Amino acid sequence: MAHTSDEPVFSIVIPARNMERFLEETLQSVQDQTFADFEVICVDDGSTDNTRQIADRFAQSDDRFHAVDGPAKGVSAARNLGLSRAQGKFVLFLDADDLLHAQALGTFSEALKNSDAIAAVAGVQRIDVDGHPMRGADNRHLVPDQDQLAALLRKNFVVNGGALAVRTEGAQRCGGYDESLVNGEDWEFWCRLALLGEFAVVQGPALLNYRQVASGANFGARGPAFARRVPCIEKIAVNPLMKERFGSRLRSLLRARQIDIFWSGVRNQYQYGRKSAALFEGTCGAVLYPDSLLRPRLIWRFLQSLDRTAK
Q1: What are 119's strand-pairing partners?
Q2: Residue 14 · residue 99 · CB < 8 Å
Q3: Whole-angstrom Cα distance, residue 92 to residue 100?
Q4: How far is 115 from 119, CA to CA, in rounded Å?
Q5: 87 phi and psi, to 5 degrees?
Q6: What is the pLDDT of residues 62-119, one digit of tens each?
Q7: Is 290 exposed, middle or buried (0-12, 13-18, 19+ CB in 10 A)?
Q8: What per-residue confidence (pLDDT) applies to 296?
C-alpha cells in the first residue's frame, strides 16, 4: 500500500456525481503518476450509482486516496469542500471523467517550485467519450507573456481545471469557487485567481486528457443559447478589483468573452451532430453579435475548431 505524507506536495480534488463509467480510469491515471507525493480527495456529490464504491476501493488499497461525502449542491460546493480539506502545497481540480498524463504532477511541480507564479497551466488534449484523441489547437498558444488576465477575460485559455495546478494558499485566498454559479464557475474562479499573479506556462506534451461528452459541462457551459445575461460574466463585471484593474476597458474584454461563449456553443452543437441547430444559432448569432464578424482571429479559430474528429 502506498502512503501519503503528512504534508503532500499535491492535493487533487475530484468531484464526482454518477461517474461510475469513467471514475476508475481517472483515479488510475492519478495512481500511475511518476510523482508520488500527493493526496486525492474524491468528493462523492450525491451519486446514486457505483461512484462511491469505486472511490472507496481506491481509498482502501492506497491511503493517499480519500472518499468523502459531498454536500450534493453542485460541482462548485464539492470543489470547495475538497479545497477546505487540502493539505498539499498545490491543488489540482480534476474532473471525474478526465485523465492525467503520467508525468503531470512531476512536471507541474518543476514549473512551480522555482517560480513566483500563482498557478501553472498545461496543454490540453481533447479525447472523445471512448478515450480517442481528437484534433484541436494548443491552448497554450493563447497565453501571452504579459497581461494574462486580460487574455483570460477574453478567452478561456485554461480550458479545464485539470490543466491548472494552483498554489493552495492562493486558491483559498481568492475565495474558491462561487457556489451561486451554475455555468462558467471555473472560468470566473480562474479570473479571480489571476488577479493574484501570473500563470506559468508548462511546455512539453499535454498533461490533461479532457473528455468531450455531449451531456457534460463542456456542452452546457454557456447556458441558454440566446441568453443576453451571462451570470459568470456579470460576476466579473461587478468585481471591484476587476474594475480597478481595467476601468472602462473591462466592458470590451467581457463583450469579447460573451461572443466567444456564444460561438463555442455553436461549435459544440455542430460537433455533437446537431448541425441544423448549429446552422440556426450561427445565423442568429450574426445578427445578435455583428461585431463578431469584425474579429478575423475569432472567425479563423472557430472554423478550425469545427473539425475535432479523432486523429
Answers
A1: 166, 199
A2: no
A3: 11
A4: 9
A5: -105, -10
A6: 999 999 999 999 999 999 999 999 999 999 999 999 999 999 999 999 999 989 999 9
A7: exposed
A8: 67
Q: Sign of torsion, CA 296 297 303 304?
A: positive
In which region does residue 211 sit, left (phi positive, over 0), alpha (psi from -120 to 50) or beta (all else)?
A: beta
Query: Could you tell me if 160 and 208 are in contact, meaning their C-beta atoms sit under 8 angstroms apart?
Result: yes
Question: What is the amino acid identity at position 291?
Answer: D
Neighbour count for residue 10 (Cβ, 10 Å) = 27
Residue 25 one-letter amino acid:
E
Q: Is there a contact between 126 and 210 (Cβ–Cβ < 8 Å)?
A: yes
- Cα–Cα distances (Å) from 184 to 53, 71, 131, 139, 164, in that order, read 30, 20, 24, 17, 16
C-alpha cell at 227: 441568453
Give the start-end residues of each E strand in the chain: 10-16, 38-44, 65-69, 90-93, 99-100, 119-121, 124-127, 164-167, 199-201, 208-211
Q: Residue 73 phi/psi, 5° resolution?
A: -120, 15
Q: Convert the pLDDT of each residue in 32-58 to its tens digit.
A: 999 999 999 999 999 999 999 999 999
pLDDT tens by residue, 162-201? 999 999 999 999 999 999 999 999 999 999 999 999 999 9
As given in the structure block, the three cell numbers for residue 70 are 459531498
- For residue 274, the one-letter residue type is R
